[in-house]
Specification:
The protein has helices spanning about 15-35, 40-55, 65-75, 95-100, 125, 145-155, 210-220, 240-250, 255-270, 300-310, 340-345, 360-370, and strands at about 60-65, 85-90, 105-110, 110, 115-120, 130-135, 160-165, 175, 175-180, 185-190, 205, 275-280, 285, 290-295, 345-350. With about 375 residues, it is an alpha/beta fold. The strands form four sheets. It has a seven-stranded mixed sheet, sandwiched between helices. It has a three-stranded antiparallel sheet with strand order 9-8-13, with no helix packed on it. It has a three-stranded antiparallel sheet with strand order 12-14-15. Helix 1 crosses helix 8, helix 2 packs parallel to helix 8 and helix 3 packs across helix 7. The radius of gyration is 21 Å and the shape is globular. The chain binds pyridoxal-5'-phosphate. Pyridoxal-5'-phosphate (PLP) binds near residues 66, 91, 165, 168 and 201.
Amino acid sequence: MSNTETTVTMFDYLRHHATIEPEIQSAIKRVLDSGWLVLGPEVKTFEEAFSHYLNFDGYCIGVNSGTDALTIALRSLNIGLGDEVITVSNTAVPTVSAIREVGATPVFCDIDPATSLMDITKVTTATTSKTRAVIPVHLFGNMVDIPKLRNELSTIDASIAIIEDCAQSQGAKIDNQHAGTLGDISAFSFYPTKNLGAYGDGGMIACSSKKLADKIRRIRMYGFEKGHYSEEEGVNSRLDELQAAILGVKLRYLPQQVDNRRRIAHYYDTHLHPSIQRLSPAANVHHAYHLYVVRVNQRDKLRETLAKKGISTGIHYQTPIHLMRGYQFLGIEKGRLPETEKAAAELLSLPMFPELYDDELAYVCECINQSM
Ligand SMILES: *Cc1c(COP(=O)(O)O)cnc(C)c1O
């Protein structure tokens, strides 16, 4: 392998597509021949399959995106203007834009430097009389300890809802229970790069309350229950039949794909130089490795070195949301979330997707270890 010609990408859906193409094509043909394109039998079948996958006694509602899943979850709890929602600042912007979309105010909790996840011990000090919900983000495929968070919150106000942001955690479990089955509502994204990715946009809401599920289903389509009559204010956030049919095919491969992600993570764990800081999950967490993230002091220098060797890396996330121009109006000054701000300068995401070749993995580790 000539190093000057090697390139390793962060993500390449075509490799998986090549192995499942006949199944995808026949799913697409089935939909096109059916005469039904939006919110029909394919969506229903996929909702049931996803709920079966989550192995819980609850309901799944397909929507248009992960962002919509979060927004509709908040709306279904009547959270809006004047309410506060606690989350983290090192997350994908949509976690925060969903809170703003319903008119609520995001309140940021600092992170645990060992995992880069929400520091549960700091949630209680972030609560006020206006706190209505907490959105823990299961970042990178790791999991926030939801039962522990619930415990913390119950000492303050048991009515504060937990909305799990599961956009990156399809396949993750804690004490053998799936991410998305422990909070009051959870939001999944099927954006193409996620662990379960559609061939376009898509999302899912999961919850165990039938009453909430019915409300969410109404909000998903203009507040309709029967006919074209709005029972309550809603939006348009339908999952389309093509994406549902494609997701139905891909869901069957998800367990195997998560196993592959875990195998790749194990390779990094055991082959990277010991001086590189790993973000290890807690012992009771089955990490789904949406991303494999390390912490390094000279992050930008290492990133540049790797880029010169054809290796793409990512930063999740380069700028904490409270420091972005678009969120200056929140008035949260630099220095207020020290662990979040420190992590932003050190986190580096290495190539991670289930079809990464062994020689690519070996090459990435070799290049990183050489530069240590
Ligand atoms: C991707 C992502 C979302 C948003 O999902 P979309 O389907 O892109 O709208 C929300 N939260 C997190 C943590 C994400 O990674």
